[in-house]
Amino acid sequence: MMSRKKTLLLGTIILTGTGFLTRIIGFFYRIFLSHTIGATGMGIYQLLSPVSFLCAAICIGGFQTIMSRTIAAKNAVGSKKGGFDVLFVGTGFCVCLSVLAACLIRIFSNFIAIHILGEPETARMLDILALSVPVSTIHTCIISYYYARKKTGIPSASQLLEQLIRVLSSYLVYQIMISRGIKPDAIMTVIGLLAGEAGASLFTLIAIAWECSKYNYHFHLSEAEKNFKELFTLSYPLTANRICITLLHSVEAVLIPSRLRLCGLSNNQALATYGIITGMALPMVLFPSALTSSVAVMLLPSVAEDQAAGNDENVKKTIEVTIKYCLILGIFAVGVFCAYGNAIGTLLFQNEEAGKYLQILGFISPFLYLNSTLTSILNGLGKTRLCFYQNIAGLSIRILFVLFAIPSFGVKGYLWGLLFSELVSSVLNVIFLKKSARFSFNAMQCILKPSGLLMIALGVSFFADAILGRFMAGNSILNLILVILVMGSSYLSFYLPTIRRLKA
């Protein structure tokens, strides 16, 4: 049997590798979209996110987290059948909700597009998006079972498959549009989304069917009522929290283009700016979070098991190591995005504004990466109410900046709001965890030392840039990649001994 630490490490490595690969594919996809449908098209597509996020909150919401925790707890006592029972009861309920949500979106697509999203072009896209809600729900519920079992192979494969199918389907639709003389627009992104979710859902259904046959599992209705009551009782507060938070996210997303118009931008300019921030700059900032997201997924069931077993020391060490390495990664990301953000945005997306926004958004990296993992730990400890409080605080700050800062300062007002909200959320997460687990925080190891090393690494990278620039003046992309590699290598070399001790 593999030890718990090795299982956690292996699962994180698999998820991280897959996460980086899918994000690399995703970036090429976004570059392709920026060249085909433009920033305005990407902005229109991003307007759909409030609808898809709200559907996910209502249909899956707290059920995914509670299913993962409950399956992990049953697995800890050797009840594989109990885990399957929880999976199928939870999935059945979530799928029923998703079918209802899909029908409502189809019926009210015109109303949602015109009166809520404020963009009539999104109506036909909503009709297609509705079809993806049930298949996405199936996919999400099934992978929660594998995460609870700390089996990351199937989720990783489905994630990669979904991304590949999405990109290939969008490209196929693009070619069909071109061949028929139709100007490519954001509709091809929604078709790609539907195809990707359908492929991933089919793959996970086949995987779970094989898993059930391996253990000779048969579902019995006699256990369904008991499991449903347990899941619903635990999940409805979390679901209510998720819906509330998602509504605030939706308000923020819908308000941004309208507030941008108040500061003098036309409708197309407002949508383009929104598309550049949410479709180009923010995904780039989130790229390194493939590592922290993988850790967060693996931490929730692990922390839940530690709490159930009374291993408070393990919980304490988990929090300390998480804070340390999230800050190290975040501070390194600040250096890369602030020093090379303009070049990255211009080279990848051929858009100078993307580079400028990337330089500003780079400062949220430490807090962004830290929040994802600390929130997962809080959920693993069952502190869902505290997660709700910090999310509400952060989103309220962002909405206030959208309402009052954007009309006065333009898009920079929104970027300042993002930075301040992530900072507040991080502070609240640390305070809440400090009350739940008596961990220690070493500012020298977590902030001062990484910042000092960042200065050294930047100096090395700028020196390399000066040398490489002479020999590779005509290949700026390769020059940039090599400089960041040199910077990363010099920064990482200081932490290799610590990483080796952690693995041991």
UniProtKB/TrEMBL annotation:
Membrane topology, from the record: Multi-pass membrane protein
Subcellular location field: Cell membrane
GO cellular component: plasma membrane
CDD domains in UniProt: MATE_SpoVB_like
Keywords for this protein: Cell membrane, Membrane, Transmembrane, Transmembrane helix
Keyword NADP found: no
TM ranges: 7-32, 44-63, 84-108, 128-148, 190-210, 271-304, 325-348, 360-381, 388-407, 413-432, 453-471, 477-496
Record keyword Transmembrane present: yes
Pfam families reported in the protein's UniProt record: Polysacc_synt (PF01943)
Protein name: Polysaccharide biosynthesis protein
